Amino acid sequence: MAGRYRSDLKWSDVTAKADYVNRRQLMMGAGAMAIGGALAGRAQAQDDLVPNTWEEITSYNNFYEMGTGKDDPKRNASLLTTDPWSIKIDGMVDRPGTYDLGDILRGKSIEERIYRLRCVEAWSMVVPWNGFELKDLLDQVGVQPSAKYVSFETLVRPSELPGQRRNTIDWPYREGLRLDEAMHPLTLMATGLYGEDMPNQNGAPIRLVVPWKYGFKSIKSIVRISLTDKQPANSWNMLLPNEYGFYSNVNPEVDHPRWSQATERRIGGGLFAKKIPTLMFNGYANEVASMYAGMDLRKYY
Description:
The protein is of the alpha+beta class. It contains eight helices and twelve strands. It has a single domain, classed as Oxidoreductase, molybdopterin-binding domain (Sulfite Oxidase, Chain A, domain 2, Alpha-Beta Complex), CATH 3.90.420.10. The strands form two sheets. Strands 3, 4, 7, 8, 9, 11 and 12 form a seven-stranded mixed beta sheet that branches. Strands 2-1-10-5-6 form a five-stranded mixed beta sheet. The relative contact order is 0.18.
């Protein structure tokens, strides 16, 4: 629900496009913190964050369905058709079915959430997403008591997603969360950013955003959500299980086998930008650490 969390992030921290920031200030005042007053994440402060341009945030993406290069998603984005769109919701739910996106959005409270985004490749951004809590959708379909996990799948359409013409990943792209993670108020189904519809290269028309986990957990262009009592497969764990675990929580104390996770490079500062320390759970420890109490986070990485 709106107003449950406050954020230490300001518009000066946002990886933003300047004209939208200016428009926002005219509409709501230079000190405005959120559309509708809804922000999430009492995160710890980081070093100075330099705003990025719209071009940077929509051009520097990982979306392997559109290609493996950082600029491939933008170059191929126009190929993707996102209207009409529907999501199949099945498994351990009371009301399974294929739901039109319009029906899913009807009655939902769309909020703005300014979240940190930390990639497992040790780069980061700050993004103002627009969307609704995943919990709202799960409540809508009715989660059965035996459900313990939520799994997700991305669209498979090689005619529009050229990256799927190669066997880079066993398509469809899959991800999963434990049920308590999925129901957490920070977990967002995002339909836009910067107050506009979600760009194709960023996961249109609807994607997951889980801000305390590495970015690949925030699966894009979702077409299926399933409730299950077994831990679901996730694509990077299937591909490289010794490098990518199921949980993939941001943890500066657990290095990737091939590089350190202790620091990160803020996009926009160039390849030689000063690295900043990575925060535990990406700065959201106050909100989410209790879910992992007693767990060995080196084992359950």
